[in-house]
Structure formats: C-alpha cells, structure tokens
Write a structure and sequence with these properties.
Elements (H helix, E strand, L loop, with lengths): L1 E7 L12 E7 L8 E9 L4 H4 L7 E2 L4 E8 L9 E4 L6 E4 L5 E2 L4 E2 L3 E2 L17 H13 L7 E5 L4 H12 L3 E6 L2 H9 L5 E4 L5 H8 L4 E6 L3 H8 L2 E9 L20 H6 L3 E4 L9 H13 L7 E5 L4 H7 L8 E5 L1
Parallel strand pairs: 11-12, 11-14, 12-13, 14-15, 15-16, 17-18
Antiparallel strand pairs: 1-2, 1-4, 3-5, 3-7, 3-18, 5-6, 6-10, 8-9
The protein binds NADPH dihydro-nicotinamide-adenine-dinucleotide phosphate (NDP) and the ligand CCCCCC(=O)/C=C/[C@@H]1[C@@H](C/C=C\CCCC(=O)O)[C@@H](O)C[C@H]1O.
C-alpha cells in the first residue's frame, strides 16, 4: 500500500509557495509488534505553522495535527476502528508505536488520543471547536480577559476558528461583543448566526471610528488574533483597567523578519488606562484540556455555541487550505478531508 506525505522542502520567503513543499509517495511499512497503522481522515491547517516553520528542518514531514483511524493494530491500547487525534503531520498514513510518538512542536512524548463517541458531531471538530482552537478561545478568554457580565469584549479574526468561538463564549458569559472580520459576508455571519452585538469589515471601516460608534465608553476585554496596526487602534479605545489576551498576530506572519511590521505605539494607552496584556500558548492549559472540550461540547449541545468549517477535499489540497488562511478564504475552522 502507498501513502503520501508533504515534505517541508524550503524555508518560506514571505507568503508560502507550493514549491516550498515536496509531495512524496512511498510504500507504507509493515506493522511490527507494538505498532499501529493510522490512516488520516482530516488534517488541520493552522496559522501557527507559518511562524513556527522557521524552526522546522527542511527534508522532514510538514508538521500538523490530524484525526486518524486505526486500520491495523499490534498494540493493546488501540483497536481497529478507533479514531485518534495526533500530531502526525501532513501525511496520509502513519505507522508507529503510539507510546513513542513525539510532538515535534515541543519534542515531548505525545500519545495519540483516542476520541470518544462524538454522537453525530463530525470528527473534524476534534481539530476545531472540540480541540486546540476551541480551548484557545475558551481558556484564553476566561483565564486572561477576566470577563464580567455587562463588559465590552472586542475580538478580531472574529469569523475564524478561534475568534468565532471567543465572541460566542463572550455572549454566553453576558458580555457585549464586537467583532472585526475581513468581508461583508463574515460580518453578516457574526451578527446573524453568532449573535454579536456589532461587527465590522476592517477592510472597509476604520477601526477607531467603528469603536467610537459601537463602544463609546471603551473596551474592557480585547482578544487579539491579528496584531499590528489594527491592534494598536483597538488598544487605544480601551477602558481603565482593561485586559488584553494576546493570542496571535497573523497580520505579520508572512513579513520579512528584517522589515517587521510597524504599528502605532501602545505604551501611552497601556500606562494611562492601566491595562493588563498577557500573551499565551494554549498548551499552558494541557493539565485541564478536557475541561475546555467538555465545556464547549456542553455549549454546543445546549445550542449556545455554533461553529463553521471550511472543508477542503483531498490530501493534495492541503497547501491551498494552508495559504487560504492568509487570504481570509476560510470561515471558521479550515480542515482538509482526506
Ligand atoms: N496562542 C495560541 O495558543 C494560539 C494562537 N492562535 C492564533 O489565533 C489566531 C487565529 O487562529 P485561527 O482561528 O486558527 O485562524 P483563522 O481561522 O482565524 O484563520 C485565519 C484568519 O485570519 C484572518 N487574517 C489573515 N490575514 C490577516 C491580516 N493580515 N489581517 C487581519 N486578519 C487576517 C483571515 O480572516 P479575515 O477574512 O477576517 O481577514 C483568516 O481567515 C492566529 O493568529 C493564530 O496564530 C491559534 C491557536 C492557538
Ligand atoms: C508569533 C507566533 C504566534 C503563534 C501563535 C499560535 O498560533 C500558537 C499556536 C500554538 C502552537 C504553538 C507552537 C509552538 C509553540 C512553541 C512554544 C515554545 O515553547 O517555544 C501549537 O502548540 C498549537 C497552538 O497551541
């Protein structure tokens, strides 16, 4: 049997190119004692892959998380038909001893996690609302923004995997939620499907003007997915003792490191408004990971949390899915169905 994988062939220069990857087709090795053969069902593409790529060695399989199914097992902990979520990278087939799997992001052991029965919810959600992005939204908002009912929350990248959940969890917690996204269709979705109180297309509406209209008394909580000029504008509209969760800075991921994005100074706002700003990587909450997933699943079952996925069909579409993140192509979580 043949399997396919994408090899990270060349470090990106600006916007990633298809030629930075090499598609390799090779024989899937036989399964030895203690090993399992996993077949990918869904592969995740995520913005972090772009900045993180600076640390990847060329010639290795491109990094990433996937949902895979056990198709052969010589390991007592995994049976044929089990579905797992694991950091196997951009590959269709993986043969390994699960006890020895290493997550290349932190070089720590990372056992493929057997998914429970999702009861009709698509397995792809293990890469989105019921996985890393869902927990990023849930823990990032609740732990760092310290939200209180009646407060004003602003989120950018608001129609994406993380942002759309941040805004809805904010609404569940009783906040007034304002979102920024990159198209009129996304703005409509934020208001009509996700119940945001206000939403704006940052490509056609000045951010400061938008906040003067939608939050004349200022912003209490800011969940920042974008960074740069937009973030400086939002920070300048914050209230005394506001809190900022720095989640991502996608606006600068394709920048030339020698010519980084410049944005208006934020220190005067930080000082005079006495703001609190904290960056995070969601893995800091690994010890309570399942709490976040259980909470988001509960919200879904109660009809309080909705989600979208942009599904690309076919292994060879991974590059298009990945690059689509930087063009605003996706609404909700971008995944590739294998
Ligand atoms: N700290 C952590 O642990 C984690 C951080 N993150 C970060 O969260 C952010 C959102 O991730 P995720 O939800 O998975 O991705 P998204 O699903 O939001 O996809 C990316 C979106 O970003 C927007 N975007 C792209 N380029 C720009 C730009 N130049 N300016 C403004 N918006 C832009 C686009 O939407 P639009 O049409 O609105 O422009 C695009 O659809 C990222 O910065 C990511 O790195 C994610 C997971 C964990
Ligand atoms: C400027 C880059 C910001 C990236 C933000 C982001 O999207 C993070 C996503 C994490 C991702 C982090 C990967 C490696 C972090 C290594 C930290 C370290 O110890 O150096 C991955 O863990 C999935 C998301 O949690």
């Amino acid at each position: 049997m043949k399997g396919k994988r994408f090899v990270f062939a060349k470090h990106f220069d600006g916007v990633p190119k298809k030629s930075d990857f090499e598609l390799v087709e090779e024989e899937v090795p036989p399964v030895k004692d203690g090993e399992v053969l996993f077949q990918a069902l869904f592969i995740s593409v995520d913005p972090y892959m772009r900045p993180y790529s600076a640390r990847i060695q060329t010639g290795t399989t491109m990094i990433g998380e996937q949902v895979a199914r056990v198709v052969e097992s010589k390991h007592p902990g995994y049976k044929v038909g089990d579905n797992v979520v694991a950091y196997f990278g951009w590959r269709t087939h993986t043969v390994l001893n699960p006890d020895k799997n290493i997550n290349p992001l932190d070089n720590k052991p990372s056992k493929p996690y057997i998914l429970p029965d999702f009861g009709g919810v698509s397995l792809s959600t293990a890469l989105g609302v019921l996985g890393m992005p869902g927990n990023t939204a849930y823990f990032g908002l609740t732990k760092l923004c310290e939200p209180k009912p009646g407060e004003v929350l602003v989120v950018n990248g608001a129609a994406g995997a993380v942002g759309s959940l941040v805004g809805q969890i904010g609404k569940i917690l009783g906040l007034r939620v304002i979102g920024f996204a990159g198209s009129d269709d996304k703005v409509k979705l934020l208001k009509e499907k996700y119940n945001f109180d206000a939403a704006f297309n940052y490509k056609t509406k000045d951010v400061t003007e938008a906040l003067k209209e939608a939050a004349p008394e200022g912003v209490d909580c800011f969940f920042d997915n974008v960074g740069g000029v937009m973030s400086s504008a939002i920070i300048s509209c914050m209230k005394l003792y506001g809190r900022i969760a720095v989640c991502g800075s996608i606006s600068a991921y394709n920048d030339d490191p020698k010519k980084p994005t410049l944005a208006p100074i934020i220190q005067p706002s930080m000082i005079f408004k006495q703001l609190k700003m904290e960056g995070f990587v969601v893995s800091r909450w690994l010890n309570i990971w399942q709490e976040g997933i259980a909470q988001n699943l509960q919200y879904i079952k109660e009809g309080k949390l909705k989600y979208e996925e942009t599904v690309y069909e076919g292994f060879e579409k991974i590059f298009d899915a990945f690059i689509g993140l930087f063009k605003g192509e996706n609404t909700g979580k971008a995944v590739v169905k294998i």
